[in-house]
Amino acid sequence: MHKELTSYINKTPDSNNLLTFALQRPIYEPDNGATSWYAKVGLGTPVQSNLRFMIDTGTKNTWITSNLCSSSACAPHRKFDPAASGSYKKDGNPETIDFGAWGSMTVTPVKDLITLPGIADAVEIAFDMATHYTGSQFQELICDGGIGIPCHIPAGPNSTLILNLLSKKGLIPATIASFWYDRETLKGEVQFGGVNINKFKKDTFNVIELMDFPPDQECWIVKLDSLNGLFADGSTRNMLTNVAFALDTGSSQFKGDPKFINAAKKVITNNGQYPEVIQSPGKVSDYPYPVLELVLNGISYKLPPEKYFIQVSEDEWHLAFHFLADCENEFLVGTTFLETVYTVFDFDNRCICLAEPK
Fold it and tell me: Where are the beta strands (DSSP E) in 84-203?
């Protein structure tokens, strides 16, 4: 195990100068593939404190919906008001970011102060201020913006890499982000700077090296040894083997290349015999779906059907597997899996660590 990681595991939480975001989520989540978990973070002077941000390891972008956005997809969101902030600065010309099947976002690069929990002074960051969205997925987002935590420093990012900035300023002891979720209470936390040893079992810590990635890659990618279906009769059916696999806190579901998604669905639904959408009075437990087994760095992680079906309303559940257009050989998972583990993203040591939560 890396020396730095051992050091943080063996310290008490109080001895780490960690920044802790409180997370929450609603009971139900939209079937749009994005996480429903968010933290409230303040922007501007005086602080606009009720803005909801996903903490997102799937992107380099930090962004927020603004009150300059008039498209219907902006309507449900809380909005940053630049005119109400005395510390706001425009930092570039408007541009459009294409999210493929998701739609697009028109943004203006800006700078302002972000107020972070446990840090006395607000910190100036660069971020994208959204002024227009296209695509229903943006309208369905639970959050109002996102804080990006990419796996490396990309060329010419518009946005400040907040985790790296805090580490450089000495405001946190390490360039580490740790995630813990409690699905039962709908509460969680993200810690910048280290780990909370009260949240996981130390003897289950699994250090997984990142795979090599191209310069434009932002996601944290490890090797998925295998994805299997474990059936009640004791049989096992393999779905995928030795696949590049991103752990993306900004996503909720399994997503990726249609050939990967179809391979998984074929096993889970027994060639379409069992439904992908279940409505009350039906239940997920009415069908003999397998337990999913994800093998990462030789360690088996099991996901029962109740975990990989998402509840979208009081009486409806959807299989949490989505196609991604134009994503050949890509496969990722978000909080559908990450809710079941304690996850550490270690920027400097280029690894992800998983542990069994307490």
Answer: 89-90, 95-98, 104-115, 123-134, 145-148, 176-182, 187-192
Q: What would the DSSP string read from start to end of 165-180?
A: HHHHTTSSSSSEEEEE
How big is the chain by its Cα radius of gyration, in Å? 20
pTM (predicted TM-score): 0.95
The CATH code that applies to domain 198-355 is 2.40.70.10
The per-residue DSSP string of 248-302 comes to -TTB-SEEE-HHHHHHHHHHHTTTTTS-SEEETT--GGGS-PPEEEEEETTEEEE
Domains 3-9+16-192 and 198-355 share a fold: yes
Please list the pLDDT of the chain residue by residue as tens digits (358 residues): 555 566 666 654 444 578 999 999 999 999 999 999 999 999 999 999 999 999 999 999 999 999 999 899 999 999 999 999 999 999 999 999 887 777 889 999 999 999 999 888 999 999 999 999 998 889 999 999 999 999 988 776 678 999 999 999 999 999 999 999 999 999 999 999 999 999 999 999 999 999 987 777 889 999 999 999 999 999 999 999 999 999 999 999 999 999 999 999 999 999 999 999 999 999 999 999 999 999 999 999 999 999 999 999 999 999 999 998 777 888 999 999 999 999 999 999 999 999 999 9
Fold held by 3-9+16-192 = Cathepsin D, subunit A; domain 1 (2.40.70)
Closest listed residue to residue 56, CA positions, set 276, 335, 354: 335
**Does residue 354 sit in helix, strand or coil?**
strand
Instruction: List the 321-323 sheet strands across, edge first.
Output: 299-303, 291-296, 221-230, 236-247, 331-333, 254-256, 321-323
Q: Before 46, cis peptide (omega within 30)?
A: yes
Q: What are phi and psi of 79, to 5 degrees?
A: -130, 140
Which sequence spans correspond to the domains of the chain?
3-9+16-192, 198-355
How far is Cα 85 from Cα 43, in angstroms, rounded to an integer? Answer: 8
In order of 10, 109, 172, 175, the CA distances from 163 in angstroms are 22, 19, 9, 6
